[in-house]
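ok so i was messing around last nite and threw this chain in just to see what happens. nothing serious, just curious
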Amino acid sequence: MLNQANLFKKLLQECGYEGVFKSTITVEDLDKDDVAGAIWFQLASINFIGDAIVPYILGRKPKVLYVTCEGVLTKGNVVHSNIKRCEFVAVSNFVKECLQSVGLKVRKVVHHAIDWKLCGQVHEKNLIQRRQIQQYAKDRVKFIVVARDDPRKNLKGLAEAMKILNKKGYEKDYVVFLISDESAKQKFHGINNAVFIKSFGGSAHEFVLGYIACCDYLIHPAYSEGFGLPVLEANAVGIPAIHCFPPNTLVATADGFKPIENIKIGDLVLTHKGRFRKVTKVYRRYYKGKLIGVKPKAINRTIWMTPEHPVLATVKSKKANAKKTLWNGSKDKWLRLCSKKTMRWVEAKDLTYRDVLVVPRVKDSEVVIDVTKYVSDYVKVGDKLYAKGSNQFGVNFIKPRAYELPATINPSDEWLRFFGYYLAEGCKCKTDVQLCLSMKDKAIIGDIVKQFEHARVKIRSSNDVRVFIAGRLLSDFLTNLFGHGARNKQIPLFLLQLPKERLRHLFKALILGDGCVSTYKEKYKAIRYTTVSDKLALSLFLLSVKLGHPMTITWDYKGRRGHQLSCSTYNTEFEDGYKGRREYVLDEDYLYLPIKEITEKEYEGYVYNLEVEEDNSYVVEGIVVHNCDFPPLNEFTSPDFNFMFNYIDKQAVKCNIYQYWLFHIFTPDMLAEMISYAIDVYKNSKDEYQEYCTKAREHTKNWDYHVKYVELMKELNLVIPRDLIDYIKHGLEWITEIR
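result:
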């Protein structure tokens, strides 16, 4: 709290007041004529705030108890104490709830603040720190941790996560710098890429900010925080922060898979009938209790839900083995062992190994892509779009040499093949579309050049052939339709409404790009596809189900940084001859997947649920669940998957009054996955990384001490200068200095 007290003192001086630090404030101090008020920056515990109780209660001048808490308070902290007669100003809504839970009064919430200008200047002043960091890091990705050695800070979990990553071969890819206590060194003993650079509390705050600014990411592995200031400061100096607020499970929407927390009313989601219907309500509640984890075969991923959440399942016949086969080797007899006649909604806690989960096959429907939804700054001429330019008089015109793009696309075979090539090998390169191929991909190169006559082919070597297609609109269209960066690519699921014979062109193009086909036992074809995107893996799985050749997903294949999908068939045309597997069965409406594993765990955090019109169901990571009307208050969440550092729109520094700075407990495996993802983003998606850093720095403007601590001045009944009010009203870019 000392740094926050210094910032408030600085604000007082800028407003013409004098702030004086005292170790103890007495009633006599508050009776002096030259004292306007008093404020305590303290931990909300009787051990720390006991000396403030009497002057707070008896003092006649305005006073503020500005408090945080470490961990969760218990009633033992306040029992038999006059602390209950005090009113507090909390640093976050989490602290507010902690105080109220033990019977204390909270007047309001005033979030912690930063010196935003200082955070922007540290890059110019940290030359010493930068040389020191670079000496150790060289070309490795640089992470930094600033935390004292306390069980709540979870440094032990971070050390375990680093061991997991190093065993997977990441040791030469990254280095973690630590500013912590001497006692923490033992936890990282034997980890060569963990470097201690300073003792915690042994350097000026500005010096520590300089170290943070030298690195590429901050790791904040704490179990819980009263506020989480390191996350905010890291964003303010312009680097991302990895912390413990895991995103939720992926829901199948018309635009692709989205985290359930990002679903909005009006979004179209895939239902158990294989069609898309609108979300009418989104529910979120805080839940503490048991979660049921179900891992279906083929998907091979545990999906967590509350015990009462209904799941669509059928049941095996008594003739079927409880854990293994669905059929006895004869395709025409599978109905005896697994049938739609026994399909029903089963609460997660009642699922057994005899139950079979259901994956819907998307039904055919007309597909027309409105390109205008995915591009901006265009001029429409007839049914064509052109990139828009404007002169100094604001007059719009079509840019010279601008390439046209159809306003609507009814996906032809050529477009579907190009979509597949882009998903496998394409990326955005400034205003062009770039596909990275090799001389072995002559068929792909010829197909692209035939469709886009202005495409340029640049041969760097036999293994490095770049195809460039000029056109900002085309680049924006593909990026917004399929996702930006290898980790975020996916197939928009509305395309799966096309007939199977059309979708084969998309599938075959994907396999040509990032897949392979091999022959075994002379007649079977083994088809494999590898991707680093969870969303692309799941959407490709649904595509294979629609085509009638379900693929099996192997997550983190052989410990590498990608997921592999595979299936077996008699031929690669996918017209007939699915070899099939004894583990699961396919009919015209559904794929039936036995349950591979059922587990339980304790969970505390937010859970989500959706209400969907007509069909009352939605698809999460492949399987079908019911919405909230049966039974009431069912919620769904999956806190253990889809790891990524949070983008700024989900970031803890977002400025709103409902912000909670509570971080969930998570395992070293989860932290290791988040760090490995951050490494891949930094190395392979620099544009994505830089975009995040820019947004992070920009959004933290609202947390400058001039903006936040004015509320503390109001609590002390101090006069706020007019120029400070204008400063807050017009923003930091309008005024850079106060007095």
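not much to say yet. Confidence is low (pLDDT under 50) at residues 322-336, 628-665, 733-739.
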